[in-house]
Each structure stands twice: as C-alpha cells, then as structure tokens.
Amino acid sequence: MRLIGCIPWLAAFALMQAHRAESANPLGIAFKDTTNVSLYAQPTGMIVAGRCNRNEPAFRQARSRGAEVLLYISATARPDHRVCALDNELYMNDPTRVPLWPYPREGERVSYPKTHMTDMRPGSRWILHVVDYVEQLMRDGQVDGVFLDSLGARPWNKLADWESWPQQEKDAWTDGTIDLVRRLDEKRRAINPGFIIVSNGAWDRGDAHGLSGERYVDGIMLEHPKLGSKWHEKQAGKPFGDLGHRRVLVVAHGPDEARAWAKVNGVTHVCSQFGAQEYEHPTEPPVPFEPLRDRKASSSK
C-alpha cells in the first residue's frame, strides 16, 4: 500500500528530473524560407536567418515575441558569383573585389564548391571590412547577433585540405580568425554588449594556438556531431566569453539525437535539421522551451 501510494510522487519526481536534464532550447535554421519560424517565436527560442532573407517579417515577429535571431555571415569564403543583393553588401558589392587568401598562390584555396577562401590574415583589408559590416548590424539593432559560418581555429571542410598546409600558413589562418572575433568583440562591448557572436567552428585545432579565440565568442555550433563523441562534448562544455549570454548550438541527426544532445553539459540550443535541403527552414522544435540559466553580469575587460 505504501509503495502504491508513492508511485504518483515517484512518477512526478522522475518527470521533474528528466525535465531538468533536458535544459537546452530549440534552434531553427531558416536559410531559404520562413516556414515554421513562428514555432520558435518564444523567449529562449533561437533562429538563424539566411544570407538573403533576413528582412522577412517572420523574423521581426519572432524577435518581438522574445526569440533571438542571428544572421548568417560567411566571412571565410566568398561566393564565386553574386547570390543576392543583401549578400552582395557583405562582399563589397561585387564578390570579385573581395581579397582572397594569398597562399600558396592567391585564390588557390577552396573550402566549399563555387567559393574561394578569403584573405583572413590579421588586420587584412577584408577583415576590417567584415568588422565594419557587422558593426553596422550592431548599430541597426535588427538582429540579435551573428552566426559566423565555417569560422574557428581551422577549416574543417575536406576541400580545404588543411593537413597539407605548411605550419606557417596554418598559423596565419588561425591568427586571422582570432583577430576577426577579437575585433568584433571589442566593437560590441563598446556598442551593444548584448550582441551575440557564435562561430560555426571550434577553436581547438589539436594544439593551443587557437584557444584564445574562445574568449571573444559566446559559443560555437557543433554541426551533426557523433552522439557520444568525447571531443565534441568537451567543446560544448567550454566557458567561452564573459558577457553573460553563452550560446552553444548543436545540429543533430534528427529529433531523438537533438533531445540527447540537449542533456549534454554546456549545450544551450539544439536543432534536428538534417538531410536534403536540411537548412532551408526549421523543423518542429525538438525540445520544449526552457529558461536560460547561464546568464551572469558582464566582467568586461
């Protein structure tokens, strides 16, 4: 009788513990259209808008209801041809004007089809241009932050053939990516400390050279990591910047994996988009919306 009487309480306790464990929030990626964006229009929801659709009313409506909207930025590679008018603004109004990575010969490095890697040397004209572009986003206040695609201590795409790069070239690339996020962090601290910076790439390239980049971003995205990967779990658990809005995003292979990653220490947002046209628009949120408990007062330096 006593055990039977305890069953409802035990069930409630188990449900409460599971609810606590699954503390990450939903992330939606809407690179092509705004289908299902409204499902993320709640406080603690997050949406990444695409390079050509950021002015769609659905994103403004989502922000008005408390969601965070980040804008996709591809600073490390420029398209070989014009994509759209909005995207062209980032690429100096003409992609052919963008300075390219000069090694081993200018314009030789490619990390993604139909693009070329940009001049990411520290203090390059291109880096300064990207900083000016994002600074204007900070001042305009139409998005909550930026999602820096393929940016971290090293490129991971197979086409980049990173392992073949001479060490000096590797270090120059890493130093440049750190320089970019350092400059962006400096700007936001002066203009809008609430502006979010997430890099789609880890700052651990297998040595300590890139780790200083972690302090300048609010977090990273882990894109379709293997469930249970200790390396990815380690990256997810890092502290990152000190501005009080830590964001670590995981794109999983479907809803079940998204719910599993939601329980991994350090993960704040999960997405279940995968497969053909995986990033065209969000799927239904894979987890409930939860309070964000990672915020703390800024200790700006």
Distance between the termini: 61 Å
**% residues in beta strands:** 5-15%
Radius of gyration: 20 Å
**Distinct helical segment count:** 7
CATH topology grouping: TIM Barrel
Q: Report the CATH C-level class.
A: Alpha Beta
**Mean residue pLDDT:** 92
* Widest β-sheet, arrangement of strands: 1-2-3-6-7-8-9-10
CATH level-four homologous superfamily name: Glycosidases
CATH architecture name: Alpha-Beta Barrel
Helix coverage percent: 25-40%
Major beta sheet, specifics?
8 strands, parallel, barrel
Instruction: Say how many strands there are.
Output: 10
Give the ordered list of helices and strands: HEEHEEHEHEHEEHEHE
Structural class: alpha/beta
Q: Which consecutive residue ranges, at least 5 long each, have pLDDT under 50?
A: 1-22, 297-301
Shape: globular
Count of all domains:
1
Question: Could you explain how this protein is built, in words?
Answer:
Helix content is 30%, strand content 14%. It is α/β, with parallel strands linked by helices and 301 residues long. It has a single domain, classed as Glycosidases (TIM Barrel). It has an 8-stranded parallel barrel, surrounded by 5 helices. It has a two-stranded antiparallel ribbon with strand order 4-5. Helix 5 links the parallel strand 6 (145-148) and strand 7. Residues 1-22 and 297-301 have low confidence and may be disordered.
